[in-house]
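Instructor's aside before we start: the two examples that follow are unrelated to each other. I chose them only because their records fit on one page, so don't look for a connection. First example below.
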Amino acid sequence: MGFILDGLEAEAYDRTYSDTALIRRIVGYFRPHGRKMISVALLVSAASLVETLIPFGVARGIDMLAGNPAAQLVLALAGVVTILGSLGWLFNFLRQKLAAEAVGDVVLQLREDAFNAVMQRDLSFYDQFPSGTIVSRVTSDTQDFSNIVTLTMELIGQALLVLLISVALVVVQPTLGLLTIMTAPIVVLVAFAFRRIARWSSQQARRAVAKVNSTIQETVSGIAVAKSFRQEAAVYEAFTATNELAYRVSVRRGLVFDTIFPLLDMIAGIAMAAVVYFGGARVIDGTLSAGEWYLFVQGLMLFYFPLTSIASFWSQFQQGLASSERVFALIDAEPRVVQRAHEAVPQLRGALTFEGLDFTYRPEADGAPATAASWVLRGFNLNVPAGQRLAVVGHTGAGKSSLARLITRFYEFQGGRLLVDGRDLRDLDLGQYRRQIGMVPQVPFLFTGTVADNIRYGRPEASDEAVTAAAARIGGGEWVADLPQSLQSEVGERGVRLSLGQRQLVALARVMLQDPRIFILDEATASVDPFTEEQIQTGLDAVMAGRTSIVIAHRLSTVRSADRIIVMRQGQIIEEGSHETLLAQGGHYAELYTTYFRHQSLEYIESVGTFGE
């Protein structure tokens, strides 16, 4: 069994809830729809009562026909059955309609709660868990949650029907009625025996579906890379392996659920055969009428079918509980970024101070405390005055991007303090604080829509004139003329219809419209043509003017124009000063300049020459 379940381990934030806790929480979602659910319960009762009356009416008619066979009596009996059947259909229709509305409302609310939880999770959560599995919980698992409610409604109706039939059978013929009822505990006990394995198999099935979703999403997102390296076959093999895993888990789950029904039907069949035999014997010896015997035969069918449904309900119910457990685990996941207070944030000056700050991306890797090698920053100190343009340089892994992520409060630091205008960042209202921060990542992300929609993203209420003005301040607005439909050009998914340089210009215009007090830029390393390079630099100058700017610099022009440069290595500042001062020191910055920035500068000069030709 182990090889079947490889790769289907629970996520780190998963937790185990008792059935009672889950049911109590599910009931909480239905509490606002109490009136509708009461109406459903009444309709279920009415439908069950009608279903019970039909065999009684037919049995009574049979006995009356045995003594007085008349056509009028047959017609009357047919009319009564038709009326009762129509009422039963009407009650069931109304019950299903109201139940569907209530279930739809609850699933809508649950999905909104799950999606809100996704929005509240900090970035470390997405670093650790694949987005496809998270999507599966918000979509597939919330839908499966509705099965609990549907099954519960069926359970109420079936249980009431069993109760009414049991009373009727005991009243008509106590001995046979008690014999019938005595078989019920056997059916229920057999069903309960499947309860635990049904819950476990359902959990594995949901994890398998989530893994398939994750694989598909990752493949679609990286399809360009796969094609460029001609790895379609390898990607297909990886998906096939995941799909086969899901298939094996699904087959095992199917065997579990498909085993219980035949077993329950077999027990019910044996019990029914025994009762039919003893009932027939009583008809022969005259102690039971033909109508009563018919009532027992029909009653047995009405008794055992809902009884087996009730018994199998517990196994099916586990599937819904397994799905709800996964959704509630996502909603209840503990955040790592926790604010101590939510103090109002007025207009910021933009002064930043790191005081003895310790940071690691995995504070408790695999349950153990962070090791010395895992610390990204240790006792880090840095003061950035308001309005300063700070360039951060260093080799990969030096901790440059971590500074940006901590300033935006995307990650939690483990020690020290980070002050903004002298106030601890952990005490500020994050929503108000982040509205005064503008950030352009190394690969700007654009949402499906127009260029104007993406510029307006940070300020949805901004007018078309404000959007046009913001675009015009980036590179003089000349880049807008190169777009096929100006600012109304569609960017495509993730901005694929624009070049990387154009995406950077859109992202800069978005920040310009936002008008933040702190600007953070992680410059892209990809080369762009000299004209776009100039537009980007002009746009950067416009955005950084009068703002505190933290730039993880990859362009020589950005480094040279910075008020101050810090050089980082292994989470520590090893040099700082101006471009000329650091070059004169002949240290690590001079080495970086020689091996990277100087080479970049020569390439730029050569490209300008070629461009000029």
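Example two begins here.
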Amino acid sequence: MMSENILNLTINGVAVTAKEGDTVLAAARAAGIEIPTLCQSDIVKVYGACGLCTVEIEGSPKLFRACATKAADGMVVHTDTPRVRQSRKIALELLMSDHDGDCRGPCSLNCPAGTDCQGYVKKIADGDDRGAVELIKEKIPLPASIGRVCPHPCEKACRRKMVEEPISIARLKYFAADRDLAGDTYRPAPSGATGKKVAVIGGGPAGLTAAYYLALKGHAVTVYDAMPKMGGMLRYGIPAYRLPKSVLDREIAEIERLGVKMVNGVKIGRDVTFDEIKASSDAVFTAIGAWKSSSVRCPGEELDGVVGGIDFLRRVAFWNAGDGEKPKIGRRVAVVGGGNTAMDACRSSVRLGAEKVYVIYRRTRAEMPAEDVEIEEAIEEGVEFKFLTNPAEIVGEDGRVKTVKLQVMELGEPDASGRRSPVPVEGKFEYLDVDTVISAIGQVISPEGFEALEKTKKGTIAADENTYRTSVEGVFAGGDATNRGASIAIEAIGEAGRAAEVIDRYLAGIDAPYKKPYVSERNVTPEMFADREKAPRAVMPTRPAQERRHDFEEIYLGLPEDVARREAKRCLSCGCHDYGECKLIKYANDYDVHPERLAGAKNVAPTEQKLVVIERNPSKCILCGLCYRVCDEVAKKGLLGIVGRGFSSVIKPEFNDPAAIAGCADCHLCVDECPTGALKFLK
């Protein structure tokens, strides 16, 4: 009788039936119960190599491998007990401790938004600009704007610098995004409406990013902003010669087309209260930015002609937009500070007609936080840098700035950030006659209207760094207004994207913080790239300094297509080609592994392509045996086998039959079954 071959067992409290001869793993899968495994495949015999599919069976003190344990009538199985989880975690940590591969490229890991830099650079190299933008917009909804203004921390981590120079990643983003805007612009489709309402306070890069991703999740999003137009510091803090506002307008319009409602000219505490916004929403994301300039902190700062850097740039932006008077700065201007805001202020002063523009910075050029290209371009435009000086006093006449007294400095011991601290040279001063002093040494928030939110000692909004929750239930915060204060736009975008994930879960009733994923990273040296042919980094064409210094038109001309394709092909493709499908890294994150506690020697072997169309990276191999088993049992070729014993074992091909090797092009079953990305099919 057929019924005599049916077994009844219980798995995780669920009644399950199995046929005689089925394994516990097969019975669980048939019932929709997942048991993790890295070495099992339905097309080959049971092997039991990875040790990941362990389960507990009532009545036995030991753990069993579900792939090799036959189901029995009346068996009671538990697949997710603390003991089982600990066993799997240790198994994964052992595997990862010997795994020598990059899950993601260092460029992506160093991007504050986690953008798949390697992925979109590869698509640009292949001529797929739309695909590149699709990848970028998974993390950045304003790629053309950010491609122009980002100080590209991704490039600082680029390993191509071990060959000659980093890939021009930001300029490639600029290239692909502009081509996308010029054609059928990519716009992802939102999910179905959830019925939940989210208020976003602040229409800068953080607020717009949160609105974009929450709208894609199907939530009804309204963005409130105090300024006449959306964009925040991208509009009012970055000059038009770096970011044309027509580009920003196009990208904001794309966000609005997702159904995001945008309300400008609304100041919290003046036009509407914070409580009213909160009462009309299921969640609130606060991204109000840091709109007040820090004080220059010296006598005379109250004089007419002393202005904050952010205030000055905002006035310039209004004038450029035709909404205000041209700022009156006189013939001679001093800008205090060494960051990108100081560079924007000094270069804007040149464009406003100042005959002499100084940058006062208390350290040397080597310590300046501004981008080197910004400094170089400012010098080309005629800006004079006064390094190792600091304002001691601003001297006035009839209530207006006349002279800046500069304390001469020298570098002392390193401070907490590692930079050498500037110390005054006693009794040594310089004097500059100026008409305007612009203080670009920092930004702080304007907390009026947000008294209900707890603040840090710095006066910023206190927000949990994993959940982005504030002290008020249902209210989240991110960007320049929170915790450490003002930073670069891509930092704000990254925070807002992660906050949107948490808010989406919150609206679904799930209280889950953002968790940074675990990834495998290789240690590399320049010697590993010694065989690479050197190719110079692409240079962005730029308008001549004597031309560009007289107007606010964009200074960059864009990468020509052939240059962009060639630049993208310089990428070393550090990250794993199989990261999105890798079972090993998926389970490593599921079980919160910490393989560093088991760190030791690794069985590292060179990558090779002896199978003609298949690249093998033994350093990523976990010896699950799937590749050589499918080659032997299914493909019937027997080209692969384990060589060596113990820790140094590797899987290598045999070369007895060249015709069989050539047949790999029509098979590649081994690549399909590999759970780690150790094998790559070379198309």
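The chain has a mean pLDDT of 94.
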